[in-house]
Amino acid sequence: MFERIKTRQINNKIALKEAEIRQSLIEQTGDITEGNNYILPEADAADWQLIGSNTEKGLDPDKQDLLRTESIKTYFKSAHGRNIIRLFEKYVSGHGFGIEPISTVPAVKEVWKEFWKVNKMVLRKKEIVRRTMRDGEVFLIYFDDGDIIKIRFMNPALIADPDNKAMISGNINDGIETDKNDIEEVLNYYYKNKPIPADSIQHLKIMVDSDVLRGRSYYEPILPLLSMYKKWMMDRMKLNEIRNTVALIKKVKGTPTQTANVATDYPTLQKKNPDGTSLHRAPKDISVITTNQNIDYELKSPNLQAADVQKDGRALLLSIAAGSGMPEFMVTSDASNSNYASTMVAEGPGVMEFEDWQDYFAEAFRDMFARVIEHAIKNNRVPAFENIIEKEVQSDGTIKETTIRKPISTECSITFPDLVSRDIEKETKAYILQANQGWLSNATASSNLDLNYEDEQRMIDRQEKDDGGPGVGKTEEDLAIEKQKKAMAQE
Fold first, then answer.
1. pLDDT, tens digit, for every residue of 97-114?
2. pTM metric for this prediction
3. Helix ranges, 30-157 (H)
4. Domain ranges of the chain
């Protein structure tokens, strides 16, 4: 029994010492991501205790500002850091990105087109993604400018607790006032010490749980790695400079005094002093060592294993790639370490990462679209209701059309850039073959081609009505040719 108690005491002392060492390391490195992340066990505890993180998942305002500042600096100063954020811009809101209204009412499309142009959304959509991934959060404020809504970015550093925090009835932290009973129900945002209603602000936050008020930068886990890699490269450059330095040894027969006199006059590179006399110095990157015959110099170079150094650099890049959720060749823009097959395999996790962020930003842009259309409805620029024709197949095979009056739709369809190069012609032929065999429905084929089957059918019907119906204005020969083409396509 005494041996067991003694063993526990020894284990407690070891745990205490480890915790003290970790605490000391954290204080020395000034970790901005977790702060004092370890709990020191009591020295006189009768049993062992777990050493773990505290329950705080957010950062205090000072560390939040420090993380944001370092992230912005990394974006502008680090080549790999900028490349990571730029990839998100390209694959989330780059070429091919588009938002189209679900409603067929022309006024809805006109209002959205006007909003897109007035707010320069061609550029702002990318800035939304860039700020969110880099800073960890974005605050968009909506201004009611009469007929149209204008949006602007707010500086996250200026959203902070007001001076009269004690006078506020709700819970307020990090400049965000929430309901006392629901932390996810935001009431006000305090910007420059003034409250702004939550309805006027769209807040995007990432890398935190839903009950954490402020977001954290996507850079956070890779900031030290990017800094280490930059330092590693600088050290390599210094080493190369040292290796390229040439030592020129000049031996003089004579006394040390004669040697010293000769050392002052070495006409390798001649220039003139202001008084016209000759100035002699060694060429650039050449060190001149002057000695007499009684002194010898032996130049030694450090015995460094270049292969090991190269592995260290790649290990850092792999860690950066893992922290960013991307394959190595995307982070470095270099696929020399892989072949086509391995690149295709490695591309999978990266594609899934981008698709996940596409889903996240899709909700943000849908919210934006709904705000714009609701504002237009409020200002009577868009009707509150629209007529929708629903089709129903009867028992005798006929189609019955029913007109239903519904509230105007504030939904939209979003198209994102293609993540993988696709052969549309090859895919379409495969879907036609599967449909002819009865293995695939038209709706599923449309979905696989990133099309909404019902929307496409409505637009096809509307197009046929605008054109006067199928076959209008066509000769019997034209119809026969079309019929023959369809039969060949099915074959």
1. 999 999 889 999 999 999
2. 0.66
3. 61-77, 79-93, 106-118, 121-135
4. 1-55, 61-220, 422-491
